Amino acid sequence: MDEIKCPNCGKANPEVLLKCRYCGTELPASAELHAGPEAPSAPTLNLPETTVLGLPKDWEKSLAASDKAEQPQEAEADWLRRLRGDIGEAAPASANAAADTIPDDQPAPGLDNWLSGLREQDAGPTPEADQSGAFVPTTEEAELPDWLKAMPSPDAEPSALDSAPQAEMASEGGEADDWLKSFEPLTPASSPPATSSLADWQNIQPSATPEEDDDSDAWLKSFADQAPQTAPPSGFSNYRPPGAAEDEADTEPKAEVSDDEWMKSLGAAQDTLPTLGLDDFQKLAETPVTEEADDSDAWLKSLTALATSESETAVAESSDSLPDWLNAPTPPAPTVSAEGIPPVSDTDDWLKTFGQIESAPQIAPQSDTPDWLKEPPSSASEAKPEPDLTQWLSSVGGVVGGSAGAAPESGAPEAATPTAADDWLKSFKEAAKSDPETAEAARTGVLPDWLRSITDEAAPGGATPSTPSSSTSPAAPAGGASNLPDWLQSFKDTAKSDPATAGAAQTGALPDWLADLGGTPAGGSTQLPTENLPDWLKSASGPTPETPGAPPPADLPEWILSPDSPGGPTTPDWFGDVQSKKKPDTGKIDSTVVDPFALQSPAGSTPAIVGTDWLDSLKADAPPASETPAFEGLGRTTTGQTSQLDWLKGLTPPPTPSGPTTSEVDFQIGGESQPPPTKATTGPLTSSDLPAWLTEPQPAPTESPEASVPAFSSDLPDWLTAPPAEMTTAEALPTTTPFTEGISMEPMRLPEPSNLARADLPGWLGAMRPVSVPTGLNLGLDYEETAGPLAGLRGILPAESAIAVPGKPGAVVTRFAVSDLEQQQADIFRNIIAEESQEVEAKPVRKQRFNFAWDRLLVALLVLALMALPFAGLVPAGLFADPSRDLSAQAKAQTLFDSVANLPAGQPVLVAFEYDPASAGELTPGASALLQQLAQRGLEVRAVSTYPAGVGVAQSLLSETSEVNYIPGGAVGLRKFVTDPGSSLNDVSAIMVVTGSTESTQAWLEQVQTATGKKMVVITSAAAEPLLLPYTQSGQLAALISGLSGGMAYQSKVTGDSLASDPVATSQWEAYTLSLNGASLILLAGGFIGGVMMLLNRRGEPKPVKQAGQKQEPQSELKRRKPKKKKAAKKGSAAKATKKK
Amino acid sequence: MTPESSGMILAFALSLMVLSYLLGDNPFYRIALHIFVGAAAGYVAIVVVGSVLGPQLFAFSTWQSAINASQLRQDYVPLVRITIPAFLSLFLLFKLSSRPTFIGNLPLAIMVGVGAAVAVAGAITGTIFPQVQASWSADPNIVNALILNLCTILALLYFFYSRGRQPEGQTQPSLLGRVLAVFPNSVITITLAALYAGALATSLAVFSDRMKFIANFLLSLLPQ
Fold first, then answer.
1. pTM for the whole thing?
2. What are the boundaries of each domain within chain B?
3. Of the N and C termini of chain B, which has fewer Cβ atoms inside 10 Å?
């Protein structure tokens, strides 16, 4: 394969590459920029031009060609058939693969064969190909891509490490062989092998700088040193590495392998693969690795060593075109006899190249080879036969190129056994054991420089002998951490500053967490070695439960050590004591204290996070609460369960230095700086380490912690669900990690607290603390969800809210403060409402027919009796005076008589009868007397009435034929009567009105008398007399007689007879007088009786209660005076009462 | 049985029926009451129609005379005098129905208005002025005059209803008002008592008359 010289760095790069693999510069496509004089011995791979993706540029063509295949199925069958055939042919190849040299022209058996077969298939069947037995591509496959075509056809001569494939590939088509050729190893001291086989690339020396391949090559080197010479996998026996001669590949007889055989070969190859188990890794870890300059080439060395002894020349011939990075020193060729090699064919060719490369002479590493692939001089000169590597490889492929390839082939079946696999592993151990330095170097060489430097700095004491319990992380090389990132650099600085933390280097092959996974350590220590732990991790760890004061294991990193353990890291104050306070788990949620770091549910000790039981197992016994927790009040749970981060408890801080160190972190929280905890006392962080805002008083602890039950224990492996006590911190956590090895990780410490007093919680604030209300929810550890997607899990919050939980609602509602008065009023309202709803039965009430008013009836009967007595003759005569004898009556009667007597003669007189028949009994005597007197004088009487019934009354007094005018309209009619020109009032001398009401009299007076000025006399009733007397006194009325007494008196005046002369009149008069007197007496008696009863009632009425705030209604002055007297009387009575007592 | 005797018997019966009201409301009393009201209403109707409506509205002669008067006077005043009241009277008939009742509002309004005017005018001229004049007229009896004037003033003070409002919201007359309110109350009480006495006397007089009638009837029934 041609190489292109990088225009920037000048290093050789394979032609197939687009960019320089060293500096990244884009490589020119020109073939002129080739690397220097080609090493004839270095096998090269002429890879076809590839695209950016690495595909050959003519891959499309190849696809098109394949599409144009007439018989694609047959083509596929052919190439498979040929592949199998090559494998079969390659099986009886020589076992001395290491010694055999494969000419360039001869294709490598095994793996090379199938590739060449593919190529031949693409080009078409040729007699040469057929004869050689190589896999010749058919016509359909003749259009295979060039890169495939370039692959050498499998040769008839099977060899484990066949360098001939290069030539074979080159014979096909130049460029197709290049890429394979590039895999040919490039040894610095020897010429590249003639054939470019796949094994050649093992010998490629990377041109890496010493700084780069320090550590990365170590593991490779180890492989190279100890790689057994095993035959390549049988399935690849047909592969012909680039550089193998095409002729050879064509001349090789095709190995016709049946369908089953190739599969069997593959299966056999798989069976021969070494199976690495845990023990192997452990063993590997135990074996010291020698420190070498270029450890990255170790594994390559092992590979090259296999082939060096057998196929040095072949490699030299075939490695012309191989790039430098592939021209690594080949591992030693396997020394297995060819007889033991399983019957594999050309499929092992590519692996043969391994042997060729290995057997080829050591090629001097070129400058273009990356460093990590470069074989160290020491290892390059060594041609250690490494049968183990080739053996397992041959067991996979079955054939190892060349003499080296033969050996693997012969030993392939044996290599398939686990012993072969163990051999190369053992080689690691032996190499490490023989040379501790080299082992260490090898171990450290596995790590990159940056990691190595860290480990070295973490272990300033130098590499210590590895222990089984130590990790496999090699110690960092001394003074080689220039490339460390800053964050790791800081760790190293901290490690340097604290010699206490610079514990023993982790020299164990296995990490402790791996080593201790299988069993329970003695004592069930949950503490991690804290030697290499940083302080901040040491402080988080708990004390060692076994020996609280005992020093932690030396091999444990400090960051894992418990703060309590001596020598362990100091717990940073800010980290706090996650597990410090042993507070029983009451199953209640403490809202004030929630541990963000707690890995369990707040209510219980059940781990909140799945699979954290292993962490629980790491917890040490939590120190008592009296110890200063560093993180108190941050919201940690009030539980002291061991299910919390006990592993952090084990992280004991180192002894408190005199003053704060640079590694300490002055983390003041709440203005308080916590003192750095001491090793003896520090366990979990206590309250004194915490700032004030973190050290809030915690509520009452809950119930005692129950056994931690993982929430998801059904599907977890045992190691996760193991009881906490079974695992210790050392078991759970690795003592050291590649990242922390060698780093002194001191726990961060908070500075000494100042004289700030802890703030007391004020009462009002404490009163605001939420009170745990029994929600009725079972939040205990044993609560198992029964609904929803979390059914079956424990230790989780219930899916249903408290609202949905059936229970007594309003149980927490406090009672209303109701006073007695309000309660009474409420009762009243309640009774009122209840009464409204009650049904009231309607009681039947008898209807009283005679509802006598006995008092009225009595009075009525009395009056009736008095009235009837005179008529019965029971009243003595002369008992009552004659009305004519009544002076007042006589006077009034006299006036009327004189008025009428003085009327002019010959002028009519207007007499108005203004009363109805109901008043006739009282007014008829007077009216009749008037009419009698008018008649005596011979005056004309014009009768009028404004009452309709008065017309009849008038007619009853006058003759029935007399004309009586009816004046309608009341006062208005009278007004009209007066103004009517044809009215009869115009020539009347006087107006005599006989009326029973006051209104009519007033109407006549106001309308007629005022308008006419005529004399007006009135005969009225006793009821109207008081209202008409003013008119008499005013002179508007000439005369006025009223009532029965006035009429009778006027009648007696007119007639000249006394009343006695008329017995009926007398009876009537006596009845009237007797009843009137009787009524008067009754009124007086009734008034008297009523007054007495009223007085009696007033005395019996209760006095109104004067309510508070209500002002008594003001009383009149007269009433106000009375209380005073009463008060005085009461005082006097009270005084008398006291005196009596 | 003469009409007079039947009348007396009927009257006697009706009198007793009315007096039965002393026992309470009873059917006899109701019958008597209804008879009286009916008879009275009938009699009134007869009188109104015979005395007013007939001769003044329906009488042809009235219209004839109005027409003649109009012709005589060569004006329509007499005719208008009879025509307008006629129409107004007819309008009053609409008061019988709910819908056209508004039509009868006009004559009612005229009647009420005219009546009020006449009454007020008459009251003023026939009562107030003469009475006021009579009150300050020289009365030979000075005591009577003083008493008269004093009681008149006090009676008028009784009808003074203005009160002062207290801070609490209560209304309470002043002390002078409370003092003066005692005499007006007495005067009013005496006046009302006098009126009541007269009404009592009138009723007893009427009752006595009835008793005389009954007695006479009974005596008439007695064989002489």
1. 0.42
2. 142-224
3. C
Token pair recorded at residue A126: 């040729």
Q: Measured between alpha carbons, how far is A862 from A1079 in angstroms, rounded to an integer? A: 9
Radius of gyration of chain B (CA): 28
Q: If contacts are CB pairs under 8 Å, which of residues 918-957 in chain A contact chain B? A: 918-922, 924, 948-949, 951-952
Q: Chain A partners of B115 at a C-beta cutoff of 8 Å?
A: 969-972
SS (H, E, C) A262-299: HHHHHHHHHHHCCCCCHHHHHHHHHCCEECCCCHHHHH
d(CA A1055, CA A1058): 8
Contact A327, A369 (CB under 8 A): yes
Pick B51's closest partner by Cβ from A851, A966, A1117: A966
* pLDDT mean by block of 10 residues, chain A; 1141 residues: 82 86 81 48 55 59 55 58 61 46 48 56 48 46 60 52 45 50 49 47 47 52 52 45 47 48 55 55 57 52 60 52 54 46 48 48 48 51 47 48 42 45 57 53 54 54 43 43 59 54 46 51 46 58 47 54 51 50 46 46 44 52 46 42 54 53 43 47 52 56 47 60 53 55 60 70 80 61 77 76 57 70 90 85 71 78 86 78 78 88 87 89 89 88 89 86 84 86 79 90 90 89 88 87 88 82 81 87 90 87 62 51 54 65 59
Q: Are strands A1039-1042 and A1015-1020 parallel, antiparallel or unpaired?
A: parallel
Cα–Cα separations (whole angstroms), residue A716 to A482, A516, A1056, B152: 43, 19, 149, 120
Helix (H) or strand (E) holding A1061: none
Backbone angles phi, psi at A373, to 5 degrees: -100, -10
A29 and A169 in contact (C-beta within 8 Å)?
Answer: no
pLDDT digits over B49-85, tens only?
Answer: 888 888 888 888 888 888 888 888 888 888 888 888 8
Task: For residue B196, give how far its alpha carbon lies from the nearest alpha carbon of chain A (Å).
Answer: 7
- Chain B residues close to A1117, C-beta within 8 Å: 175, 178
The CA distance from A556 to A539, in Å, is 14
Q: How far apart are CA A356 and CA A346, in angstroms?
A: 15
Bridge partners for A307 per DSSP: A332
* SS3 at position A314: helix
A1020 touches chain B (CB under 8 A): no
Judged by CB atoms closer than 8 Å, whether chains meet at B134 and A1030 is answered as yes
Cβ–Cβ under 8 Å, residues A958 and A964: yes
Q: For residues B175 and A348, give the distance between their C-alpha atoms in angstroms, rounded to a whole number.
A: 141
Supply φ then ψ for residue A1039, to 5 degrees. -150, 155
Q: Is A864 on the interface with B (CB under 8 A)?
A: yes
Name beta bridge partners: A254: A133
Q: Which of A168, A144, A138 is nearest to A156 (CA)?
A: A168
Residues of B whose CB is below 8 A from A1027:
195
Q: Which of B23, B125, B195 sits opposite A1026 (nearest CB)?
A: B195
Contact between chains at A1071 and B212 (C-beta distance less than 8 A): yes
Shortest Cα–Cα distance, A808 to chain B (Å): 53
The token pair at B197 is: 């006495």
Q: Which of A513, A488, A758 is nearest to A617 (CA)?
A: A513
Across the interface, of A972, A1006, A1075, the residue whose CB is closest to B126 is A1006
- CA nearest to B178 within chain A: A1116
Whether residues B212 and A1068 touch (CB distance < 8 A) is answered with: yes
User: Torsions phi, psi of B105, nearest 5?
Assistant: -70, -30
Distance CA A327, CA B205 (A): 166
Cα separation, A382 vs A361, in Å, equals: 10
Size of interface A-B (CB pairs under 8 A): 169
Q: Does A1025 touch chain B (CB under 8 A)?
A: yes
The SS3 call for residue A98 is strand
